[in-house]
Amino acid sequence: MSVNGQESFDVVVVGGGAIGMAVAYYLKSMSAGCHVAVVERDSAYTLASTPRASGGVRRLFALPENIELSNFSIPVYEQFPELMAVNGEKANISFRKGGYLFIVPTADVGNLKRNYETQKKLGVNVDFLEPDGLKKRFPSMTTGDLAAAVHSLDDGWMDPYAALMAFRKKVRSLDVALIQDEVVSIEREGALVRGVTLTSGKKLKAANIVNAAGAWSPLVSQMVGQTIPVTPLRRFEHYFECEEQIEPLPYVKDVNRLAFRPEGKGYTGGVPTLAEPRAYNFEVNHEYFDSVVWPALAHRFPQFEKTKCKNTMSGLYDQNDLDGNPIIGPWEGQCENFYLATGFSGHGLMHAPATGHAIAELILRRRFETLDLTRLGWKRVENNTPYPEQGII
Ligand SMILES: Cc1cc2nc3c(=O)[nH]c(=O)nc-3n(C[C@H](O)[C@H](O)[C@H](O)COP(=O)(O)OP(=O)(O)OC[C@H]3O[C@@H](n4cnc5c(N)ncnc54)[C@H](O)[C@@H]3O)c2cc1C
Q: Could you tell which of 216, 236, 359 is best to mutate to test the pocket of ligand 1, judged by most ligand atoms within 8 Å of the CB?
């Protein structure tokens, strides 16, 4: 569509990672006539977070909203081959229902138990395990310092790059305009945004704009005068192998943030830390594995005493420093047609489908219909009232 020589869209999505793609996919699925553009500055996704993710998907959260985001999204990933098929060609994202396991010492059992009750209420297939039960299920694990665990049997992991490529191919087939360019400014007139200007000098008119720029979303928000508490938090993902046999493991996570899962002949994971200075820093610290990750692994599984790190990749979380949870919805009271879908703080891949669906509902139907995500909206940021997870994050 062209208005006064300028291309005009119902929705311009800034950022073509998992979140931006999911928004575009659900807009077109719910309203085939909706004119959608996704502006992505780097179609190779050199620095984007999505392809650098570990690929874990889990329902193990405390907040009902986070559990529901997973309850919606994980089955979507399970059905990805069919849902993202184009001309009969299925997508392959290597989805593996390997399970997820949270393990805790005595001090954290209360939280774990409360969260488990919430998860059960919301239909999650979870087992609460005492140390004996845990040892029976995972005999190689050192459990002496653990008081309990929760095993979520239907969770797992996938290949994030393959998921992103599947989304891209699908939205292109649905006539979403995939524009390789960078949004450098956003036109705002009072309480409305009107369009974007790109590096190429091109301008796009937009009835709605979605900020899905991940770790770069604070810069996009600044273009409309909005300050958001999202910051770029570097974390390392290590690939390592083990010479000794361990029984098949789920995605294992502890309160000190050691998180890893099987991958190919070895394992992938790491120990993210919130103490990391916030910056667009992709430098790899090769000491980190030996000084932090390896001791944590060897403590939990003696087999890792002899492990070797084969590869380390760095990537950025779109960390919400207010409360570690996403901000989903319009800039209420200021710019009602400027939407945020950011601040996923390490959970953006697993929550992308539900987020895309929710933003599509807000834009097309003016309200949340499937999941009520009001408490994850902008108001809590404006009112400085954090809504954090309790327990392992
Ligand atoms: C090491 C690591 C491990 C992780 N593990 C997991 C995990 O196991 N499970 C999970 O759910 N999540 C995980 N995450 C988090 C997850 O990767 C992110 O939350 C998610 O990918 C965010 O998706 P996104 O689309 O918002 O961001 P991105 O994938 O970063 O996409 C944003 C895009 O916006 C583009 N962009 C930015 N500014 C502009 C602009 N001005 N104009 C045009 N384009 C622009 C960028 O080029 C980028 O491609 C992990 C992250 C890291 C770093």
A: 216
CA dist list (Å): 376 to 21, 324, 358: 20, 11, 11
How many angstroms is it from 372 CA to the middle of ligand 1? 24
Query: Which CATH superfamily groups domain 100-156+231-320?
Result: D-Amino Acid Oxidase, subunit A, domain 2 (3.30.9.10)
**Mutate-to-test residue for ligand 1 from 349, 350, 351, 393, highest number of ligand atoms within 8 A of CB:** 349
- Ligand 1 centre from 318 Cα, in Å? 7
**What b/e string do you get for 11-40 counting C-beta neighbours within 10 Å, with b at 16 or more?**
bbbbbbbbbbbbbbbbbbbebeebbbbbbb
User: Is the pTM above the cut of 0.90?
Assistant: yes
**Per-residue pLDDT tens over the stretch 184-195:** 999 999 999 999
Domain 2-72+160-229+323-382 belongs in CATH node 1.20.58.100 = no
Residue ranges for the chain with pLDDT beneath 50:
none
